[in-house]
Design goal:
237 residues; alpha+beta; Bactericidal permeability-increasing protein, domain 1; ten-stranded mixed β-sheet; 10 strands
Length: 237
């Protein structure tokens, strides 16, 4: 399928359910015949927008399924926390991270939008990941203690707004941006071994709270890279 993406497919992808939602005007095109061609193609295929978006999602899902689970980079998290009368400082070496369930991507219902400028079609549409799971193992350095542990996070119903660009001049499709617009439900759990109770709770709470916020940023960056590299072939036939 990747090798047979056609101009009609990509124009169909760019089309909106109702042409009223598109932003193509004569002032945004260089020549009158260019405006007529682009607007004509959009009107011709606009009724099939759901079909084309669904095909795109299917192609992306297939690519994501082939790389699931996907490795996450190692990171070091430093902290300073006060526990009772003690000021604690230390760090977590986060390693062996992986992300699962990338193939839960789906298209959310709603109109796509289209903007035409400088021989490029800018397609805005929303995508949802039903359930993303990630895991890290870590080594902790706290007051000469070195407990090990595991961090697991889940994120449900993450909705991202994407902007895809079809370059008419160079015949390629690429992902320009991917922004989280609805975070759904995010949970992070941390388990630590060999850490005394009075020290365990604040440290675990600190790490869990940190990653509830950082998880979303990390997921956005990772998903932008993964989705962007699993779009249909940029070779137009």
């Amino acid at each position: 399928m990747k090798g047979s993406i056609s101009v009609s497919f990509l124009l169909g992808l760019a089309a909106v359910v109702s042409c009223v939602d598109s932003e193509i005007g004569e002032e945004s095109t260089v020549f009158k015949h260019e405006y007529s061609y682009v607007s004509g193609q959009v009107q011709k295929i606009s009724g099939n927008i759901d079909k084309y978006i669904n095909i795109l999602v299917m192609v992306i899902r297939q690519g994501l399924n082939n790389i699931d689970p996907y490795p996450l980079p190692d990171v070091v998290e430093k902290f300073d926390e006060k526990v009772w009368i003690l000021a604690l400082s230390g760090q977590f070496l986060m390693k062996n991270g992986i992300i699962h369930n990338l193939n839960t991507i789906s298209r959310r219902r709603g109109n796509a939008t289209l903007r035409y400028e400088d021989r490029k079609l800018y397609i805005g549409t929303d995508f949802m990941f039903d359930l993303i799971i990630f895991n890290y193992s870590f080594v902790t350095e706290i007051v000469s203690l070195g407990p090990r542990g595991y961090l697991t996070g889940t994120a449900r119903d993450l909705v991202f707004h994407s902007v895809l660009v079809f370059d008419l001049e160079n015949d390629n499709l690429y992902l320009e941006s991917l922004e989280l617009i609805e975070k759904g439900e995010v949970k992070v759990t941390v388990s630590v071994s060999k850490l005394i109770d009075w020290l365990a709770n604040p440290v675990v709470n600190w790490l869990a709270t940190l990653y509830e916020a950082k998880l979303l940023v990390m997921l956005r960056d990772v998903l932008f890279k993964i989705v962007g590299t699993n779009l249909p072939s940029q070779k137009i036939q």
